[in-house]
């Protein structure tokens, strides 16, 4: 296995090693084994078994990497991956069947179909915040589509990365499925190779590096990025329920370290103080009076991220805007849930994706103004709205462009496998989940079938005026036009 240790000496994984790995996998893929339904199902079942049998180890790894509460791991990492596998096992045979399509009179007699085929050898580069789910969910989609796969887990979650390498080596067919551990050097070596698709989850800065590397080989990419996902709160709602759902999506998802986490709230000047009061009460109900001691909050992943979040919080434009929270423990890398009120839009915290436990609230005179506020920035990965106003809801859905929208809740669209999950604009490109994962790693091959019968001289030289009229009619697909052309009628 690439990236493994040999005795006490760790093998160097450089461009040469990466090239050898890809060559090896291409030779294996050439055998055709991954194209069979039986192989695909066997590997999906093996990966599901690896996760089910090692759930305790997964919980421990995420505790080590992120101090992630076991419930969050079991639900959002293990549980969601199990669901993905179950959908694939139930639907895969149907997904693999070629789709019959209609043909036109211009190719008569003929039949046609769209044949789904694997792309080949693909690379999955995953993220640290949900290191199990964001690694295995794309991988299982690539396997279901019949590809050979290399997974590069994030080095920022080392316990999870190590566990993934061990599990895939133990449970999977290593002729086709491999893990490469490491950091920038290893990722760079992998990106220098020619892949049939690259699937990257992470931030826009690295996303641009991935896309630039892919362009050299004309390799297609899926980029699952992020952005500033807004939450619009109308005044005509149950604020308690809204607050709890915002808390669940913000601090209940890895303490805000999630790509679809609510990034900021927009509400009216009148509603904002009431919302803050409800958020205070519900946050205390969830995490107690001293949230830094709560075992239900993940820690900040690293000292670098802690320093970045501290900088946002210490900005002169927002340091006096803290309405709740703000406590920090640098030694333990913990930051309490923090609500900031009346944050100016030109502050540092509004200039980048927060990816942490800070939640700014910006106010408008009328809630309808929120649409212009959102559309003035980059398109987010998710946008949330809480309202009972049917007209405003319809206006929001029609006019706000985001990877996904959710009305009267947060993040739950993630678990609906019949919905595509992906970004738009700077929040990403491509989508996955459910059949969309299968499609992301599949080429839909167009196939037209004809016999030797019905070979008309019409398409062959010498060209005549009659042939020209008939060809025009055939291309137009008009029966009446063909009859008129045959009779020489204008």
From TrEMBL:
<dbReference type="GO" id="GO:0006081">
    <property type="term" value="P:aldehyde metabolic process"/>
</dbReference>
<dbReference type="InterPro" id="IPR016162">
    <property type="entry name" value="Ald_DH_N"/>
</dbReference>
<feature type="domain" description="Aldehyde dehydrogenase">
    <location>
        <begin position="15"/>
        <end position="447"/>
    </location>
</feature>
<dbReference type="InterPro" id="IPR029510">
    <property type="entry name" value="Ald_DH_CS_GLU"/>
</dbReference>
<dbReference type="Pfam" id="PF00171">
    <property type="entry name" value="Aldedh"/>
</dbReference>
<dbReference type="InterPro" id="IPR015590">
    <property type="entry name" value="Aldehyde_DH_dom"/>
</dbReference>
<feature type="active site">
    <location>
        <position position="259"/>
    </location>
</feature>
<dbReference type="GO" id="GO:0009737">
    <property type="term" value="P:response to abscisic acid"/>
</dbReference>
<dbReference type="InterPro" id="IPR012394">
    <property type="entry name" value="Aldehyde_DH_NAD(P)"/>
</dbReference>
<comment type="similarity">
    <text>Belongs to the aldehyde dehydrogenase family.</text>
</comment>
<dbReference type="GO" id="GO:0005737">
    <property type="term" value="C:cytoplasm"/>
</dbReference>
<dbReference type="InterPro" id="IPR016163">
    <property type="entry name" value="Ald_DH_C"/>
</dbReference>
<dbReference type="InterPro" id="IPR016161">
    <property type="entry name" value="Ald_DH/histidinol_DH"/>
</dbReference>
<keyword id="KW-0560">Oxidoreductase</keyword>
<dbReference type="GO" id="GO:0004029">
    <property type="term" value="F:aldehyde dehydrogenase (NAD+) activity"/>
</dbReference>
<dbReference type="GO" id="GO:0009414">
    <property type="term" value="P:response to water deprivation"/>
</dbReference>
<protein>
    <recommendedName>
        <fullName>Aldehyde dehydrogenase</fullName>
    </recommendedName>
</protein>
<feature type="active site">
    <location>
        <position position="224"/>
    </location>
</feature>
<keyword id="KW-0520">NAD</keyword>
């Amino acid at each position: 296995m690439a990236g493994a240790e040999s005795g006490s000496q760790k093998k160097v994984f450089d461009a040469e090693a990466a090239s050898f790995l890809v060559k090896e996998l291409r030779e294996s893929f050439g055998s055709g084994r991954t194209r069979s339904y039986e192989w695909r199902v066997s590997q999906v079942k093996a990966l599901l078994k690896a996760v089910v049998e090692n759930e305790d180890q997964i919980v421990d790894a995420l505790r080590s990497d992120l101090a992630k509460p076991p419930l969050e791991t079991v639900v959002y990492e293990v549980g969601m991956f199990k669901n993905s596998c179950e959908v694939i096992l139930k639907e895969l045979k149907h997904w693999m069947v070629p789709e019959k399509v209609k043909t036109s009179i211009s190719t008569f007699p003929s039949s046609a179909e769209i044949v789904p085929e694997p792309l080949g050898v693909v690379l999955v580069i995953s993220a640290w915040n949900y290191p199990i789910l964001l690694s295995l969910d794309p991988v299982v989609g690539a396997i279901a589509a019949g590809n050979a796969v290399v997974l590069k887990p994030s080095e920022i979650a080392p316990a999870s990365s190590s566990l993934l390498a061990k599990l895939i080596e133990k449970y999977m067919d290593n002729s086709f499925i491999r893990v490469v551990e490491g950091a920038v050097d290893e990722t760079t070596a992998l990106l220098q190779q020619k892949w049939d698709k690259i699937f990257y989850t992470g931030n826009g800065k690295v996303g641009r590096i991935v896309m630039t590397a892919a362009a050299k080989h004309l390799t297609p990419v899926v980029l699952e990025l992020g952005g500033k996902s807004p939450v619009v709160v109308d005044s005509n709602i149950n604020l308690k329920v809204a607050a709890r759902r915002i808390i669940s999506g913000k601090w209940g998802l890895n303490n805000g370290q999630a790509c679809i986490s609510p990034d900021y709230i927009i509400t009216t000047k009148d509603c904002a103080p009431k919302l803050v009061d409800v958020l205070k009460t519900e946050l205390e109900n969830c995490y107690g009076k001293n949230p830094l001691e709560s075992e239900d909050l993940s820690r900040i992943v690293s000292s670098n991220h802690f320093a970045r979040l501290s900088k946002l919080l210490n900005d002169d434009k927002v340091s006096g805007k803290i309405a709740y929270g703000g406590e920090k423990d640098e030694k333990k890398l913990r930051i309490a849930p923090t609500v900031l009120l009346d944050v100016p839009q030109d502050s540092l915290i509004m200039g980048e994706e927060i990816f942490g436990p800070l939640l700014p609230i910006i106010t408008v005179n009328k809630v309808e103004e929120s649409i212009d506020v959102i559309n003035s920035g980059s398109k987010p990965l998710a946008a949330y709205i809480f309202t009972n106003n049917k007209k405003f809801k319809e206006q929001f859905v029609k006019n706000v462009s985001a990877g996904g929208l959710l009305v009267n809740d947060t993040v739950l669209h993630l678990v609906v496998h019949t919905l595509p999950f992906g970004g738009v604009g700077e929040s990403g490109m491509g989508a996955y989940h459910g059949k969309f994962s299968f499609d992301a790693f599949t080429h839909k091959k167009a196939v037209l079938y004809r016999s030797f019968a019905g070979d008309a001289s019409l398409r062959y030289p010498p060209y005549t005026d009659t042939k020209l009229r008939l060809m025009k009619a055939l291309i137009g697909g008009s029966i009446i036009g063909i009859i008129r052309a045959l009779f020489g009628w204008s």
